[in-house]
Design brief:
Radius of gyration: 17 Å
Oligomer: single chain
Strand content: under 5%
Shape: globular
Largest sheet: none
Helix content: over 70%
Number of helices: 10
Order of helices and strands: HHHHHHHHHH
CATH architecture: Up-down Bundle
C-alpha cells in the first residue's frame, strides 16, 4: 500500500468543504481568543485576574490550534505530510478537551477540587496524545470513545460547578457537550460520503456553545 492510498479517505469536494469549514473555525477561534482575554482582563473577580486570563487564553488557544491543524490536515494532498498532520489533528482534540476544562477548573472551581480535576484532565489528555502519536490510527476507535468519556467527566463535579458559575454557563456547557456527542455517529460513519463533513459542522456548533459558556462565566 502506498502512502497516497493509505491516507486518502475523502473526495476532493469533501476535503475542500472540510478545510474551508474548519478554516472558518480557525478564524473565529482567533477572534474568540481575543474576546476571551479581554473579557477576563476586564471582568475577573478581584485578585483572580491571572487565573482567569490564563485559563481563558488556554481555552481560546486550544480552539485555534484544533481548527488550524484540522484545516491543514484536510487541505493537504495525500502525501507524508498529511499523515503527520493527521496525528496533529487527532492530538489537538485532546488538547481542546483539556483546554475547555481549564477555565472551569481554575477560574470557577479553583481550590483543591479545581486543581485536582485540572491535573487529572491534562494528565489524561497528555497520555492520549502520546498514545495516538505512537500507535496512530490503530487507536482510532479507542480515541473516539476516550474523547467522549473525557468530555463528560465534568458531570462528576456538576453540583459544585453549578453553584460556582451563572446558570447560562451551565446551559451552554451542557448544550455544547450534547452537540459534540451528537456528532460522534457522523464521525463513526466517515467512510460514507459527506458524513465527516457533517461531523465538522457539529464540532463548530459545539465550539460556539462552549465559547459562550466560558464567556458568560463572569
Amino acid at each position: 500500500m502506498t502512502v497516497q492510498t493509505a491516507v486518502k479517505q475523502y473526495s476532493t469536494g469533501e476535503e475542500i468543504f472540510n478545510s474551508v469549514s474548519h478554516g472558518a473555525g480557525a478564524g473565529l477561534s482567533a477572534a474568540a481568543l481575543v474576546l476571551l482575554v479581554i473579557r477576563a482582563a476586564l471582568s475577573a473577580p478581584e485578585g483572580m485576574h491571572a487565573l482567569y486570563v490564563t485559563s481563558f487564553a488556554l481555552f481560546g488557544a486550544s480552539l485555534f490550534i484544533l481548527y488550524l491543524f484540522s484545516t491543514l490536515y484536510h487541505a493537504l494532498t495525500p502525501h507524508k505530510a498529511k499523515n503527520v498532520f493527521r496525528i496533529f489533528d487527532h492530538a489537538s482534540i485532546y488538547l481542546l478537551i483539556a483546554g475547555t476544562y481549564t477555565p472551569f477548573c481554575l477560574a470557577a472551581l479553583h481550590g483543591v477540587l479545581g486543581w485536582t480535576l485540572f491535573g487529572v484532565i491534562w494528565g489524561l489528555a497528555a497520555t492520549g496524545i502520546t498514545l495516538y502519536a505512537v500507535f496512530g490510527n490503530r487507536l482510532r476507535v479507542v480515541s473516539a470513545v476516550t474523547y467522549v468519556l473525557l468530555g463528560w467527566i465534568i458531570i462528576l463535579v456538576y453540583r459544585p460547578l453549578s453553584l460556582a458559575v451563572p446558570h447560562a454557563t451551565i446551559v451552554f456547557l451542557i448544550a455544547g457537550g450534547i452537540v459534540y456527542t451528537a456528532g460522534c455517529p457522523f464521525y463513526a460513519l466517515k467512510k460514507y460520503k459527506w458524513m465527516h463533513s457533517i461531523f465538522h459542522l457539529f464540532v463548530l456548533a459545539g465550539s460556539v456553545l462552549h465559547f459562550f459558556s466560558v464567556y458568560f462565566m463572569i
